[in-house]
Write a structure and sequence with these properties.
Length: 217
């Protein structure tokens, strides 16, 4: 499948998606450029490729989804809003789409995924797109990746019930984490900033994500 595509994956289709995301308040042009230029159709099943540039979440198997492009843009913008980041941890590789958006915007992405088959597919996509600053690990993402901590930023693509302190501890002081928190009935997207002795929490907006689960598959 080509990176540019035709028909539903045309440049005009992608531009309409960017117009919609911009209308919802995302302003970071670097983030918008990555959404525009990243071939989302490569991250979903070919049977759904005609919907790749709709602003909606789509199933990717294993009861997981590829996030809505707006929410990917919003989370990325919120993570980078207060200055560039060097090393970023992503919890929940999934299809790899969020990882691919982050990759050109930071020095290195460390990404973890608990479902091995999804991680294997994501690795193939990273290779295909020549994204060489991504390091992957099959593990329980709630544990983070202590070997490479402290991180400048952490992005979590599934919802724990509350802010995971194990991940906060892996942020450098002044580092920030963007994640959804809450149960399936009520979730909020938040930004957590590590302080010298604790952390601050900023509410961003309502959210709807799959739950963050323990263990590996």
């Amino acid at each position: 499948m080509s990176h540019s595509g035709i028909g539903m994956t045309s440049q005009r289709t992608r531009e309409r998606l960017i117009e919609r995301i911009r209308a919802q308040g995302v302003r970071d042009e670097k983030v918008l450029s990555q959404i525009l230029n990243t071939p989302r159709h490569l991250f979903i099943d070919e049977a759904l490729s005609s919907r790749a540039y709709e602003d909606t979440a789509l199933p990717i198997g294993k009861s997981q989804t590829i996030s809505q492009p707006y929410i990917v843009a919003r989370m990325t913008e919120a993570l980078l809003e207060h200055g560039p980041l060097e090393n970023v941890l992503e919890v929940g590789t999934g299809s790899g789409y969020q990882t691919a958006i982050l990759s050109p915007l930071v020095r290195r992405v460390y990404t973890t995924e608990r479902i091995e088959s999804l991680l294997s597919q994501a690795r193939s996509r990273f290779h295909q797109l020549r994204l060489i600053n991504i390091r992957t690990r099959h593990t329980d993402g709630g544990l983070g990746w202590p070997q490479y901590a402290p991180f400048d930023g952490i992005i979590v693509t599934a919802a724990p019930l509350g802010v995971p302190l194990a991940l906060v501890q892996q942020l450098r002081v002044g580092g920030r984490m963007v994640l959804p928190v809450g149960d399936k009935d009520k979730q909020a997207l938040v930004r957590v900033t590590k302080t010298e002795d604790s952390h601050d929490i900023e509410m961003l907006e309502a959210a709807s994500f799959v739950p963050l689960l323990d263990g590996v598959k």
